[in-house]
């Protein structure tokens, strides 16, 4: 009997070809768009530098300042004379305009109270870039003045020029997984994979509610088939589809994304733990979809309620906006999102090089969540049968 339930379920799934396409095309498009959009944020280099105009008169000190500032990989800095700051920003497309007196060293040396350095930018420029530029200007001027002091005092300052090179950043991975290369693809694939796995809700609610309305479930029950077998017959086909989603998205990240000049997904990961995460996320997503399908009377109601809840889950989990830039209270709320448990477990394996101890609590939360949803689905189904 179970074979026939599965056969019926697969036939229904492949009839709803549009819902199936959404499950594969939606994450593919999001992975591609977000990998491109976040390329500079997670890359070790920046492709498009911020344009900065220094407005002042040229002299030796200004030349030295420009040379030092241009060593920063985030900025492309050039000199402009007697130009309108607004015209430079809105007509010449500079991101920042810096107004500085050409005799800035003298004024700093004399502690001139009227001396200021003005930085102009468009309102939408991220404040982080302003602080980086401000810090870079302060560092460059301080370095230049300190260097002169060392020379006058006859102190060997040869290491001062190489001070930046003496400070290096290295990522610290869990369990010595140092071969994982961080990039936007490594960040985007887990996020949109979890999102798409939870959207299994669309085909499940379509088939399940139609079966309820056409009396298919009642007819299956009339031949003494237990309800749990009916539910399990629902879970298994969609569980397989979720695993195909995982396989396809890994291939997309590995082989398709590099075609758009974006770094490929690194698959130097523990496949067993990755599958364990995928199984747990799939179980939670399918059971949640069954609960929504049992609560709803129509497919429109199910897709509206379920879709809205999924989007809220995704927003709180950090799928759409990275969690680390959210306020602390939102990060705390996000820890209760099932998508957050799925996303964190994937990131532990695919980005941080974690092991089972790092993901076991996330897997536990997902399985408990799925079991609770399945319990209430079974309860509602029994109630509807009576």
Helical residues, percent? 55-70%
Distance from first to last alpha carbon: 23 Å
Biggest sheet: strands, sense, closure?
A: 4 strands, mixed
Number of distinct beta strands: 4
Rg computed from alpha carbons, rounded to a whole number of angstroms: 29 Å
Mean pLDDT: 82
**Helix/strand structural class:** mainly alpha
- Individual helix count: 17
Shape summary? elongated
Strand percentage: 5-15%
Main sheet: which strands, in order across? 2-1-3-4
Model regions low in confidence, pLDDT < 50 over at least 5 residues: none
Return the string of H and E elements: HHHEHEHEHEHHHHHHHHHHH
Main location: membrane
Family: Belongs to the ABC-2 integral membrane protein family.
Protein name: ABC transporter
GO molecular function: ABC-type transporter activity
Structure description:
InterPro entries: ABC-2_transporter_component, ABC2_TM, ABC2_TM_bact-type. It is a single chain. This protein has 386 residues and is mainly alpha-helical. 65% of the residues lie in helices and 5% in strands. It has helices spanning 2-15, 17-37, 39-42, 60-69, 85-90, 104-109, 127-152, 163-166, 184-198, 201-214, 216-222, 227-256, 271-295, 299-317, 328-334, 338-350, 356-385, and strands at residues 50-55, 75-80, 96-99, 118-121. The chain has a four-stranded mixed β-sheet with strand order 2-1-3-4. The longest helix is centred in the middle third of the chain and has 30 residues, at 227-256. The radius of gyration is 29 Å and the shape is elongated.
């Amino acid at each position: 009997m179970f074979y026939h339930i599965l056969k019926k379920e697969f036939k229904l799934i492949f009839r709803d070809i549009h819902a199936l396409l959404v499950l594969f095309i939606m994450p593919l498009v999001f992975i591609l768009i977000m990998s491109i959009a976040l390329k500079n944020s997670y890359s070790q280099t920046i492709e498009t530098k911020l344009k900065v105009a220094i407005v002042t008169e040229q002299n030796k000190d200004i030349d030295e300042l420009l040379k030092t500032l241009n060593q920063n990989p985030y900025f492309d800095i050039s000199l402009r004379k007697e130009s309108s700051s607004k015209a430079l920003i809105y007509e010449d497309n500079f991101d920042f305009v810096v107004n500085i007196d050409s005799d800035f060293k003298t004024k700093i040396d004399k502690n001139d109270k009227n001396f200021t350095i003005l930085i102009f930018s468009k309102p939408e420029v991220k404040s982080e870039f302003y602080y980086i530029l401000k810090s870079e200007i302060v560092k460059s001027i301080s370095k230049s003045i300190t260097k002169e002091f060392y020379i006058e005092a006859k102190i060997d300052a040869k290491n001062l020029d190489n001070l930046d090179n003496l400070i290096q950043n290295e990522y610290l991975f869990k369990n010595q997984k140092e071969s994982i290369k961080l990039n936007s693809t490594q960040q985007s694939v887990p996020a949109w994979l979890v999102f798409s796995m939870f959207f299994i809700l669309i085909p499940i609610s379509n088939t399940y509610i139609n079966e309820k309305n056409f009396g298919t479930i009642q007819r299956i029950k009339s031949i003494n088939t237990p309800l749990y077998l009916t539910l399990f017959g629902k879970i298994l086909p969609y569980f397989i589809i979720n695993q195909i989603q995982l396989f396809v998205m890994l291939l997309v990240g590995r082989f398709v994304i590099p075609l758009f000049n974006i770094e490929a997904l690194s698959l130097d990961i523990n496949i067993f733990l990755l599958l364990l995460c995928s199984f747990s996320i799939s179980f939670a997503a399918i059971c949640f979809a069954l609960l929504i399908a049992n609560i709803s009377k129509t497919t429109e109601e199910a897709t509206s309620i379920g879709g809205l809840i999924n989007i809220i889950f995704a927003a709180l989990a950090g799928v759409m906006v990275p969690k680390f830039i959210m306020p602390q209270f939102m990060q705390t709320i996000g820890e209760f999102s099932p998508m957050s448990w799925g996303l964190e477990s994937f990131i532990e394996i695919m980005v941080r090089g974690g092991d089972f101890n790092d993901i076991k609590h996330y897997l536990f939360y997902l399985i408990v969540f799925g079991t609770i949803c399945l319990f209430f689905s079974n309860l509602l189904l029994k109630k509807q049968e009576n």
